[in-house]
Amino acid sequence: MSTDPSALEAEIEATRERLAGTIDELLYRASPKTIAGREVATLKAHFVDPATGQPRTDNILKVVGGVVGVVALFVVIRKVAG
Description:
elongated, mainly alpha
């Protein structure tokens, strides 16, 4: 660390600029629009192969099977209870 006032001012200004950049990056990452965009991209990557653009039928069939199973369970519970 230098005792020269101009060098110290330059160092403080450089630190201030780095902190401002870091804060801007954190604000961008924490914005709801950015978070939603990341989640949509993650979900889309689960069902569509990013390399080929083709749907991943195995993952789609797993989700469809789960939905059908839950609906069937609700139907059975409703018939038993009703």
